[in-house]
Structures are given as C-alpha cells and as structure tokens.
Design goal:
alpha/beta; 11-stranded mixed sheet; Spore Coat Polysaccharide Biosynthesis Protein SpsA, Chain A; two-stranded antiparallel ribbon; 7 helices
Length: 296
C-alpha cells in the first residue's frame, strides 16, 4: 500500500498576515504545496490529505487540490473546534489536533508536513522508504531533521521543535521553542517560560515532517482529551506534535528515527521571506531539478 501524505494547511498566517498556503512562488504561480506534492508523488505517495479550515476549503480546492486529482487521490479533513467547545476561539487548536483531524481520511502509514515549508526531494524519498520498509513495526516512527542554521528567517523570530538525539540517531526528546532568532553570529531562543538561551546551528530541529503509523491516532485522541481538560477555554494554547511525541518517547511507547537531510529547506514565515523563496526555486528550476511549469 502506498503511504499517505497529510498536509497541515489550516493555519491563519498570523505572522504572515494572510493565507500563505496559497501564495504563488514559482515562475508559473506554483505554490510551495505544489512542489511538496510533486516530490511526494514522485516518491510514491498515493493519497494526499489536506487539513484545512472549513471557511477556506472551497477556495483551497479550486486553487490547489483540483490540480492533482488526476495524479493522486485527494481528500480534505476539516480542522474545527471539537464539539463547539470554545466558540469564541479563532486560532486552530494546534498541529497535534490537525493530525487528529485527519484520522478518518488516513488509512495507511503516513507522513505529515507543513503547507508552507519546502522540504526538498530527498526528504520525501527518505520518508517514503521508511514508511514502506518491510521491518518497520507499528511503534516505529521517524522525523526528517534539519540543521537549525538553515531554517531561520532573516526577518524575525521563528518557532521550532529543538531535538535531542542519541548516538544511534533516535530522538530522545524535543522541546518546542516559540522564538528563535539570529543575533549577529549567535542563534538565540526563548522557551515557554521566557528564558533566553543560545543554540548551535548544527543542532537538529523538527520542521513538522513526521512519519507515523495509523495507530498514532489513538495516542493523539487520548492526549487531546487531557489537553482540553486544562485548556478548553484558552484562546491561544495549542496541542502540538512535538509535545505529544516527546511524551510518547519518554514513556517508551514509540521510537523516532531521525532521517537526516542537509536540505535544501526554505519557507515563508514573513512576507519578507517570499523573495528568497522565489529566488531559491528559480535556481532549482535552472538546475533542472524541477520542470517549469511544474504541472504540464
């Protein structure tokens, strides 16, 4: 069975100021999602599940999803307020809840990615190889890891899952850092307690490229229930994949292999990031890595 690809596209783009999921960056108005889907299909992914908000689903399908319907099975999962528990909340409940939203649409080993990150062809090839491996067990997960130094923005702070990795290349812990930024030659960060620290550019971070088995949904469902017991009326607290995975790793329920890739990686956090992404894609096209237009 070909693996599924779950694309998290329900974000509201608060730092960007709009729907960066459908922002054109290619020479023929391709989006970053277009390149991710192109690479995923080449790597052998057979179904694409887009996690979106209900109010953007129709526009998203017209502009994005309909382009791939002849190449792969396309499904939509709606990320919405569970049981209308907090009607006044505008912000989605986080990446962990987004994955849980895709549970009824996902029927095979699957990868998860962000809609606004360019991961590179090698990342999808490694993920597909892991997900279709003969000796893989239900508790064997993986994460495509990137060196922190290549994932920063020149235009402001970013959030990243900072990883601890053992000598065998397995994740031992991951901490979601809400603010990481360049300060001259230094890389600085603040944790959720607002404590400032420094990080090294070669340390691994998660860019939300995960390889999961369908059994992960049962973990996410139970943990999200615990999360809501504490934060149901919050306007901003999020149920995040790194928090969930770190808890499962520490409990010994799963293992997470780090799939190393040097990149390229690039993404859009701020509007000022877009010209750099356009330039990087143009260089890849000129190097014959991608055709242009991408979808012929």
């Amino acid at each position: 069975m070909n693996p599924n690809l779950v694309i998290l596209a329900a974000g509201i783009g608060s730092r960007y100021g709009g729907l960066k999921q459908i922002e054109p960056v290619g020479l023929f108005n391709e989006t970053i999602i277009d390149y991710s889907v192109f690479d995923a299909i080449k790597a052998g992914f057979g179904k694409i599940v887009f996690v979106v908000r209900d109010e953007i689903c129709e526009e998203f399908d017209a502009f994005i999803g309909s382009k791939y319907s002849r190449l792969a099975e396309i499904e939509y999962a709606i990320q919405e307020d569970p049981a209308n528990i907090n009607p006044g909340r505008k912000k989605p409940w986080g990446t962990g809840h987004a994955v849980l939203s895709a549970s009824e649409k996902t029927d095979a080993p699957f990868a998860v990615i962000n809609a606004d990150d360019f991961y590179g062809r090698e990342a999808f090839a490694q993920a597909a190889s892991f997900l279709t491996g003969e000796n893989r067990k239900d508790a064997d997960y993986a994460m495509v890891g990137y060196p922190l130094g290549i994932t920063l923005s020149d235009h402001g702070s970013v959030s990243r899952g900072h990883c601890e990795v053992d000598e065998n290349g397995y994740l031992t812990g991951i901490t979601e850092l809400p603010a990481i930024w360049k300060e001259g030659e230094r890389i600085c960060c603040k944790n959720r307690l607002n404590s400032k620290n420094e990080l090294t550019p070669d340390s691994f971070v998660s860019m939300n490229f995960w390889c999961f088995m369908p059994q992960v949904f049962s973990y996410f469902k139970s943990e999200f229930g615990f999360f809501l017991e504490q934060h149901a009326q919050s306007a901003s607290e999020e149920f995040l994949i790194p928090d969930m995975i770190s808890k499962l790793v520490h409990a010994g329920h799963i293992t997470v292999k780090i799939l190393e890739t040097p990149g390229p990686w690039f993404g859009i956090t701020y509007k000022e990031d877009k010209p750099g992404v356009v330039k990087a894609l143009k260089e890849l096209i000129e190097s014959n890595v991608y055709p242009s237009p991408l979808w012929k």
